[in-house]
Amino acid sequence: MTSPPAARPVADLFSADGRLQAIPRRPARREALLAHLAETLFEAGRTYREAEVNEALKTVHEDFSALRRYLVIGGFLARTKDGADYRRQQQPGSPGGAIPAVA
Length: 103
Known about the structure:
By secondary structure, the chain is α+β, with helices and mostly antiparallel strands. Helix content is 33%, strand content 10%.
């Protein structure tokens, strides 16, 4: 019995200028990327407006809306019901995780 292949580092998804070359199609690879982005672009415990999330994601890839959606669906970012505020999850929660709406 052979052991599973070692996971490739997330760094090889980025070009020399720090831009993401493509969003991985394979779920495990995409999840590793999303974990990396959540950890490096968003501070734990801080609430971000949607525009701030978009600006952070634009620094790595032009399809920021797809990345934002994947981060929320994967439980890496939680958002209010109205979609105005986002917060990094300490550990990915259930898909589509939400934080309470701000009154």
